[in-house]
Each structure stands twice: as C-alpha cells, then as structure tokens.
Design a protein that fits this description.
143 residues, alpha+beta, 6 strands
C-alpha cells in the first residue's frame, strides 16, 4: 500500500501590476511573477510567461524591495509589464509549497528547487487564477 501524499491546497489571487504592488497583502505566502501586457481600456492583463516563484512572510514588502526586480524588468519586451499573483500559505507549509511549485513549473529565473525536490511525497492543489500553473500535481522526493 502506497503512502498518501502530504496535501497542500492554495487559492491564487491576482493579478497585480508592478505599479500597484503596494496593494498586495502583507500576509505570508507564495507569489508568482509573470511578464504580461495590459489592455488599459478593458482593464485586463494578458499573461505571457511565468518567470519566478517565491515565498515571503510579507508578500507586499518582499516584492516592493525584491533583489531580482531589475533582472525581471530586463526580460520585458515591447509593451510588456510585470504582474504578480499570490496565495496565502501557512508557515508550516511555506517551504514545501514553494519548492513543489518551483520544481513542477521551473520558472526561468528560479535556481533553487528547479532540479530537486527535497520533501516526501506531496500533492499540491491550486484553485483561483491558475494560468500557466498545473492545477493538481503530486511530487516524489528526488535523490
């Protein structure tokens, strides 16, 4: 009989353009950075690419002063802008959730957890704004 996976469920909210990062919550969780384009008339953004996944005790504070912000901006083409979505995550699940999301999605500017997953069997279920994200997946620990 196989062991049941450790389960984490998250709800992804967003999308926040860089100029309104101050509107992000001051809560703990994971965040997703995308390149996107904005239609000002329709008040919508179109996501182009997931470029980074991170975690923070205070999502707003972390993103407003992120050391990779200028590197992310260098990836923008033409009229693209940066957009962020986030999911609140309990402290006990924060590291495992971030590692699983990075290992599964392999964003272009992440380096940790891209090639290894150091936790036991884990299932992540994602609801909400899931564009470019796998809604449900199970990972096994890598060697």
């Amino acid at each position: 009989m196989q062991n049941a996976p450790y389960q984490i469920e998250i709800y992804v909210d967003g999308y926040y353009r860089e100029e309104i990062f101050v509107s992000l919550p001051e809560s703990m969780g994971v965040y997703f950075v995308y390149t996107c384009t904005r239609d000002a008339v329709a008040q919508k953004v179109s996501l182009q690419q997931l470029i980074y996944i991170g975690q923070a005790e205070n999502i707003q504070k972390r993103l407003l002063a992120h050391e990779k912000l200028e590197d992310w901006k260098k990836l923008l083409k033409g009229q693209q802008i940066l957009c962020v979505s986030y999911a609140e995550v309990a402290r006990k699940d924060l590291n495992r959730c971030e590692a699983a999301l990075i290992f599964q999605h392999k964003p272009s500017t992440n380096s940790d957890f891209v090639s290894n997953f150091p936790y036991e069997k884990t299932q992540i279920s994602i609801k909400g704004n899931t564009r470019f994200l796998t809604a449900t997946f199970i990972l096994e620990k890598t060697s």
